[in-house]
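[#protein-structures] MJ: dropping Fatty acid desaturase here for a structure pass
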Amino acid sequence: MATPKFSRPKITFHQDLKLRVGEYFKSQNIARSGNIDLFIKAGIMVVSFLLLYVHLVFFTPHWILGLIECLILGALTAFIGFNVMHDGAHGSFSDKPWVNSLAGMSINFLGANVFMWKTKHNVVHHSYTNVDGVDDDLNARPFLRLSPSQKKFKIHQFQHYYFILTYSLLYLYWVFFTDYKKYVTRRVGIVPIQKMKLSDHISFWGFKALHLMLFIAIPVYMMGWVPWLIGFLVYSLFAGLLLTLVFQLAHSLEETAFPVPEPVSNCLEDEWMIHQIRTTANFATGYKLLTWFLGGLNYQIEHHLFPKVSHIHYPALSKIIKETCKDYNIPYLEHQKLRWAFRSHFRHLKILGTA
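AK: finished. structure tokens for Fatty acid desaturase:
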């Protein structure tokens, strides 16, 4: 399957929205990248992670406190991913490229690889959101059926019951399998990855070895096999659950579209920006604390339309985008409550598994 093409714009929505957003930054005289508030937040999360890691590994607490700290460490892993790595990998954390590179590399210390992530997320997911066969985020086969165009298996009739367990395995699967698969096959699904330089190869294997040492070898040496295994599973499963849920609540819903290219021309129906709006939804944007922890990824529409803009600007951009969508009669998908988005995702899985 070749990557599909987008239709040519028939309306000026794309140009008009870009002009309005550009005018906002110009009138406010602010950069599109992060600011001191983001840097402070990143510092708090990274320092908290390091202190908690040291306490768990070198000052092993009582097992009850230890399990609680493992959960918090898993949450911090996800929050660093949302707030630091994500903006850094998109080049929006700072106006300085070397700072963005450093922020993006935070994912390397946590076990994954930023080079592979950029292809999977920046290139593939952001270009072909919810297009089955291209968007690798839809590929949870055979355990889950996330798109109507995917083949249904008998096990899928129960997927709305066991999806939480499947989601929790993401971090382990990502760190210990899919990164290596991409490295060996040199592709993300049907999309080839960029040719890796020698420094990319060294970085891949070097950080993978560092992760094994920091999260397996040293903890096992300090605590023993059984305490390490229990703690590592609690940490990894909780991180995986948080990481997966945030992205699924934005794309795999009853309301979001799952476009299929026209067979002959291999073209998608909409222009790119409208495609992003139809395949993406916001959730719980009225909760500032949740937005703070999630790195603005509950404003997923704003992120998909302007991925090179830091998440600190999403609340302001959402007002502009909503107004522009209204002017062009384009539906703006949003769930005001977190539980409403979760319910929509649950029903989406149930329908795909039983219909």
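MJ: nice. The chain has one domain: 5-354.
AK: one more thing. The chain is about 65% helix and 5% strand.
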